[in-house]
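WP5 quarterly update. Target: NAD(P)/FAD-dependent oxidoreductase. Source organism: Microbacterium soli. Length: 459 aa.
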Amino acid sequence: MTDQEISRDVVVVGAGAAGLTAANELRRAGLSVAVLEARDRVGGRLWTDVIDGAMLELGGQWISPDQHALQETVEDLGLETFSRHRDGDSVYIGPDGAVHRFTGEMFPVSPATEKVIAEVTERLDAMAAEVDPDRPWAHPKAAEWDRITWDAWLHEQTDDDEAIRNLAFATGTAMLTKPTHAFSLLQSLLMAASAGSYSNLVDADFILDKRVVGGLQQVPLLLAERLGDDVLLGQPVRSLEWSEAGVVATTDRTVIKARYAILAHAPVLYSRISFTPPLPRRQHQLHQHLSMGFVIKVHAVYDRPFWREQGLSGTAFSPYELSHEAYDNTNHGDERGTLVGFVSDRNADDLFELSADERRERILESLSHYYGPEAKNPLVYYESDWGSEEWTRGAYAASFDMGGLHRYGADLRTAVGPIHFACSDLAGAGYQHVDGAIRMGRLVASQIVDKARTAASQE
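Structure tokens (predicted):
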């Protein structure tokens, strides 16, 4: 039995950055909205929580200089930002296990390896510059680039293993969080084009520039505040009936009749909704070729940022380490020091074969290789495991399997009758980032407003 029936112009499924942005834009345009969220909180993949007395950003957290939509939203909401700590030397661990301190963007590798990395990076920047992140499938070589794996293409460029591992890092291990043989060169170029260039992706000072004081989840929290009682939590949508006349969304407690629907959640969750009639064949096929990556985000809080005493920035990289990258993630104004590290794809799979204590020991051992033995003894330790989140099922976002982007990419955002789609997984610029989610929320809201105005003018 449902508790209530509601009528709105638009029902939004998902109270993340995309859905809440769309709902606010629609409300501003004079349309009524209701937002249905399966979780007991808003924010989706943005989640700031207090764990053992420490404020941790369990999901997305950084803002880069090119993320103008997110910057505008942060400013509109009156939030303050601060720069990620980066004073001091970074750390790189090479294939021999030796720890190297360095400054600048290039890892301290041999001159020959550095030359290869620079040459291939220049090649990738030129290729990414030709790719429209909103239409990567339209590139003349899209079909060719979608048939070769990212791993195979890199091996075509060089046989320098250290160069390959470091080049593969930015789009594979760090961003798509999948093994490099599992996705295409085209998918990798989309990741690069969405950030402006491949060079931007490998520049930590660019891509991980600023944070929001108090955590990035404040963006969806404040957007939801503006919507008040029109945001309904703990209400996963079980079924969605649709026709040209509109939609009927049903949860365990609510039925919402609306003219339009926006599915504003990860595409891997579309199958959790029973559609009547079923979605078209094209969408059924498309959605089967999208999957989430997997990464463990590790938080370690200490009584002070001890690495700074060693002249270290906290920035650390190694394609040979369990934690392939780590950063100073100390909160604004906090006397304690926080490190955040990442373990992705197959390494993350392997760790979950271990007990929690063994997993912690292995991860902290890896961090100690960068920062010294003091890293093994945090006051607070926590692992963000988005793979076990019922309403996310991976991190950071969905990407296509081999050949999927060229074959299905053009249909990613195509509305099905009154049903529209919006989330960071579908974005061009800002793909996989909060900025992309906001862009998609704005885009879909404008499309619905145009449709509503056209329909009103014909009545």
